[in-house]
């Protein structure tokens, strides 16, 4: 233990921000005058900190075995300095491990398991999420088209960016897979005049969007369904499909089936915009340093991230042609810090909401978990441990004469100009 403590003291001295550490026996390490303070009641948590297992330290904070004082931004700066290895370089899976991971993924992503996992996260409390999301409750990466945008403006810019990429037109049959609290679904209907269908597994989100549809008089051309994407059956395929912040929940074992389902639901020539978190590492099944375990346990049970190259491989295997891919990783770092700062500013309200709904013990744990999750994810996107890709794909018609350009085989004009300049840029 002495060697570990010496190593920890040396690491603390290298941290860009001061850190005061109090051990279970009352001994102190680090900067005694630091604003960031960690009081350990558990020796194993001290070992985790010394070993750079910051995700396990986070779990100890959630469970009340480590008391935290200080800002999330200070904590993440210190956490990055205390890491021993890049979390994307740890634990590359061997051949047999990949087989086991796939088997575990297949068992975890049944219809009933996925429904429970989604409800665990998204049905925590609508009032809680409303405290730190934008007014539309868009719970995905914003798009800071200009540096001076507020979070609310950047979320609207993201919704419009997606609609532009999809070339949405009045009357288009539009599907939003994993529609959340309805931000994109309603934006597409109201701003672009589409006939919109959304699906979700969250009961809270379903009820919320149903209320908004009725309040805005959109019953005739907007609908929200409570069901799994694998269960959706339609008589007529959709012209355009968006999936935003959803395919992270699909699982590696289900990815080919997911894109095959999208292919079935999309008409020939139609467009898909798949927007989601991807892994920063090629081979690691989850983030190391205990970070992946923390997310699985407290935030997204069943969530699995794949490298963008793997996602594009599965997309192509399903018969979808990728025509444009954009990495919005820095935008998500800024989005997450905006969420984190908002939650930090309203901690007392958040605690009251969660305790009232879930009881003191679970409510307090949930608040600690989300504080660490939002700031920790901001750090992960800043450092490139995770990324965010928008992948635009088409279902080819198979006919060279179709499309704006001869050989296009789709609605896509094979020029990015329209995304930024509007329909007039299509020649």
TrEMBL record:
<dbReference type="InterPro" id="IPR050723">
    <property type="entry name" value="CFA/CMAS"/>
</dbReference>
<dbReference type="InterPro" id="IPR003333">
    <property type="entry name" value="CMAS"/>
</dbReference>
<dbReference type="InterPro" id="IPR029063">
    <property type="entry name" value="SAM-dependent_MTases_sf"/>
</dbReference>
<keyword id="KW-0949">S-adenosyl-L-methionine</keyword>
<dbReference type="GO" id="GO:0008610">
    <property type="term" value="P:lipid biosynthetic process"/>
</dbReference>
<dbReference type="GO" id="GO:0032259">
    <property type="term" value="P:methylation"/>
</dbReference>
<comment type="similarity">
    <text>Belongs to the CFA/CMAS family.</text>
</comment>
<keyword id="KW-0489">Methyltransferase</keyword>
<dbReference type="GO" id="GO:0008825">
    <property type="term" value="F:cyclopropane-fatty-acyl-phospholipid synthase activity"/>
</dbReference>
<keyword id="KW-0443">Lipid metabolism</keyword>
<dbReference type="Pfam" id="PF02353">
    <property type="entry name" value="CMAS"/>
</dbReference>
<keyword id="KW-0808">Transferase</keyword>
<protein>
    <submittedName>
        <fullName>Cyclopropane-fatty-acyl-phospholipid synthase</fullName>
        <ecNumber>2.1.1.79</ecNumber>
    </submittedName>
</protein>
<feature type="active site">
    <location>
        <position position="377"/>
    </location>
</feature>
